[in-house]
């Protein structure tokens, strides 16, 4: 049985694909949208397509960017001799919010997890190694999460890089099993300041 007229059913089913949105929330949002003005709905629709069309990954660090290079890579005020390696653009944003770091980044877009069949080729590690060949980097800070995958990834990268340059790991303080994204700014600041050389 169809509970909704077709266009509304389609909207509910599309909305329920969003992370954290179950069918009940999708229904609530869909009904709310019906009460919006046509202009506001158009703004939302346009911003979805626009973000999808305009946002891609920075050619250098793989953070999200509107141009070829992200704003951080373009910023001449940043220290190019330090690269902080994170799992995900959201972790980078969390680190930026903490205001405790002024170097460059490298976003891996994932973790190494042999248990889940994810090897080093499935993250942007080759790209990091390429960068180290051409950029004058003195230190790589591993800021992957403190869960098993984050630790495995940090360990793997540390083994690769230690013979070449200084490698450090952000300090504990990030709750074990925790995602950088959810750590508060002071915790992140302390984690960065208390990093230890590997
Ligand atoms: Zn970048």
Report a brief summary of the structure.
By secondary structure, this protein is of the alpha/beta class. It has 8 helices and 7 strands; from the N terminus they run αααββαβαβαβαβαβ. The protein folds into 2 domains: 6-54, RecR Domain 1 (Helicase, Ruva Protein, domain 3), CATH 1.10.8; 64-197, Dna Topoisomerase Vi A Subunit, Chain: A, domain 2, CATH 3.40.1360.
The proportion of residues in beta strands is 5-15%
> Radius of gyration over alpha carbons?
20 Å
SSE string, helix = H, strand = E?
HHHEEHEHEHEHEHE
Q: Report the major sheet.
A: 5 strands, mixed
**Span between termini:** 61 Å
CATH architecture of the largest domain: 3-Layer(aba) Sandwich
How would you classify the helix and strand content by structural class? alpha/beta
How many strand elements?
7
Indicate the mean pLDDT: 90
**Strand order in space, largest sheet:** 4-3-5-6-7
What's the total helix number?
Answer: 8
Low-confidence stretches: none
Shape: elongated
The total domain count is: 2
Give me some keywords for this one:
two-stranded antiparallel ribbon, Dna Topoisomerase Vi A Subunit, Chain: A, domain 2, 198 residues, 14% strand, alpha/beta, Helicase, Ruva Protein, domain 3
